[in-house]
Amino acid sequence: MLDFLADTFLFRARLRLRRSLIARAPLFRSDMFYNQVGWRRFPITDESAPPDPLAKWHGCFFTIETDGLHLYPYTRHMDQHLHYPPNTLRWFGRPVKYTDHNNDLWLHLHVSDEWTLLQLRADHYPMTNLMRALKQVASAVSPELLTAYRRRRPYIHFDPVTVHAAAQDLYGAWTVDPPSLTLYLTPLHLVMLTAGKVQRLLALERIQAIESMSRLDQPAMPGVCRFVYLHSDGQREPLAFTLPDHVAFAASLAEAAKRTLEVPPIFHGKKKYEDEWDEDDD
Questions:
Q1: Residues 9 and 118 in one domain
Q2: CA distance 119 to 108
Q3: How far apart are CA 71 and CA 99, in angstroms?
Q4: Which residues contact 258 (CB under 8 A, 6 or more apart)?
Q5: 195-211, pLDDT tens digit by residue?
Q6: Long-range contacts of 211-214 (CB under 8 A, 24+ apart)
Q7: For residue range 82-135, what is the model confidence (pLDDT) as tens digits?
Q8: pTM strictly above 0.70
């Protein structure tokens, strides 16, 4: 009996919220009856593990409006609300081409000094509608977000890794700073975190001269990944970090940086979809 009453009140709470969302006329709205969207969230911190592909998906109401993304997790009282303004969106992409079921969308969000990977899942039809609304909002933030979305897969990521800043003297010896940092490589940015907070955000298109090397002064210690960051005023800032898997990290960084310079092709003529950005959404 108690379970029946709980389910009844839960259903009523969802209906009340559903009516209020319909009245707001969002660009996209998921629903408890159709256009269902699942979600899961991975905060990126110093101690965060790589996103677990087997992590549980949760149900929610999800809307895209002119003021950003709104997510309402399914709870008994439906009193939780996550809001991400448009200017917090740093990248979005679908890691796999469209299928009839379980289409995933990844979003990198930078809120205050925290970095979050938000993953959404929906069937083909609601996901195509969601993408059209999301592109409309993203185009007002930065055209680069749309260009990055249209680049070829796979989208380059490298799981959060603990590193130490390093500097090399004239004799080739390396000095390593004791405080550790966390580097998280995304398709558009290299995120630097300290104590779980975003310290710097390096645009990959400004990263040049990427090198990977072992330490000749201490071969048994972690190797070095070194590169140059080109500032908007033309200044060149050399950066170097020690980490165990320096070869794989440098290779991923170089590939991700190279892809930011790619210009996706523009297809003229008849399009598969009415949305002009959907010609690559196979």
A1: yes
A2: 9
A3: 24
A4: none
A5: 889 999 999 999 999 99
A6: 211/250, 212/246, 212/247, 212/249, 212/250, 212/251, 213/246
A7: 999 999 999 999 999 999 889 999 999 999 999 999 999 999 999 999 999 999
A8: yes
Token pair 């490298």 in the structure block, residue: 158
Length, in residues, of the chain:
282
Residues 97, 206: one domain? no
Confidence label for 7 from pLDDT (cuts 50, 70 and 90): low
Please report, for the domain that includes residue 174, its CATH number: 2.30.29.30
Whether residue 22 sits in one domain with residue 132: yes
Query: Is residue 168, in this structure, part of any structural domain at all?
Result: yes
Residues 204-220, buried b or exposed e (16+ Cβ, 10 A)? bbbbeebebeebeeeee
Residue 135 lies in a domain: yes
Instruction: Say if 170 falls within a structural domain.
Output: yes
DSSP letters for 131-142: HHHHHHHHHHH-
Model pLDDT, residue 150: 92
Q: Which whole number is the average pLDDT over 72-76?
A: 91
- Comparing C-alpha atoms, which of 110, 130, 134 is closest to residue 121? 130
Tell me how many domains the chain contains: 2
Does 277 reside within a domain? no
Residue span of the structural domain in which 39 resides = 2-47+54-153
Structure tokens at 150: 């249209």
Percent of the chain at pLDDT exceeding 70: 90
> Cα–Cα distance between 50 and 45 in angstroms, integer?
10
111 and 194 co-located in one domain: no
CA separation, residue 19 to residues 22, 45, 53, 65, 217 (Å): 5, 37, 33, 16, 67
Structure tokens at 114: 């925290």
